[in-house]
Amino acid sequence: MKRSILSLMYLIQGMRKAGIMLEHKLENIGLRIDDLDPSSIIHPSLEGDVLKVVGAGVEPEKGILIGQHYALAGYGPLLMLLVTSKTVKDALLQGIRFQQLTHLTGEMSTCQSEHHIALCYRPQNLQDQLGQLVAQAEISGTYKFIQDLYKMMGLSVPEVRIELPFAQPQDLQQLQLYHDYYGPQVQFAADQAAFWFDHSVLEVKIPSADEMTFRLYEQKCIAELQRLQEDEEIPLLIQRVQDYLELQTGVMPSMAETAQALHIPERTLRHQLQQLDTSYKQIREQIIKDKALRMIEYKQYSIEMIAELLGYSEPAAFNHAFKRWFGRSPRQYGK
Fold first, then answer.
1. In this predicted model, what pLDDT tens digit does every residue of 169-179 receive, in sequence order?
2. What is the 3-state secondary structure (H, E, C) of the chain?
3. Among 5-19, 25-39, 127-141, which stretch is predicted with the lowest mean pLDDT?
């Protein structure tokens, strides 16, 4: 199953804000940080390839700082679903239900004791340096997400006790890094990450709750999950080209640039796509069409902004192309 690009984008942007220079690393595989499309989806194999490039040589503990730069802004429909839930318990359950739409690569669940409940997180990989870096960033980002979400919902952040699946550092400076962020009561060497709350927190009503809005964004989240499950039978080569183009905003890469990024000779790429009864031009146009529809249906972008994000020099050119594809102008379609 494909995934939202949020995990990769947040890691890259967090590394950048933490002072880790990535531009030259990404340029070597044909990607530009500022041109990544937050609405795109990515196949785990391509995501893994990019992670290996950006994570090379970065100490796992840097993930604590990286995660502190994660933000709510990219969550779109999921964020609206959470803040319009009736209670904190409802928001927690919806977050777990739609966790594939978050920045997390591992698995969320809940754990309970007599008087407390925890949001638990089991990282995908703690066996190597890259896996630990991603886990540190995701757990740090989740803690920030909890704090930011409470503030956005108009609620006071409750007391949280935190358990981490990492060995306690022997270096006092590194240990202080954990204490400064998670608090002095943070515990190490747990089976998984856990954020423990008092049970009473679950019944707190969310001031921004709205059932009609909740149902609207619930359907949007369900549709997004279905989008992640689509195209699983597509030949691998077509999928790799689609995934690479999905990552981009602005002017789409040429076939030569895409072939270079995928480490395939351009003539070979053209020939193999012909053998699969398609072409680079067809794949690129379909990606642009899909992006256009998603942006219009999301109703957060003006037609002028959509045209720019899709690489058109002026809105009139985008309007002409859209009408050719769908028989209606973007404004008519959006009504």
1. 999 999 999 99
2. CCEECHHHHHHHHHHHHCCCCCHHHHHCCCCCHHHECCCCEECHHHHHHHHHHHHCCCCCCHHHHHHCCCCCHHHCHHHHHHHCCCEHHHHHHHHHHCHHHCCCCCEEEEEECCCEEEEEEECCCCCCHHHHHHHHHHHHHHHHHHHHHHHHCCCCCCCCEEECCCCCCCCHHHHHHHHHHHCCCCECCCCCEEEEEEHHHHHCECCCCCHHHHHHHHHHHHHHHHHHHCCCCCCHHHHHHHHHHHCECCCCCCHHHHHHHCCCCHHHHHHHHHHCCCCHHHHHHHHHHHHHHHHHHHCCCCHHHHHHHCCCCCHHHHHHHHHHHHCCCHHHHHC
3. 25-39
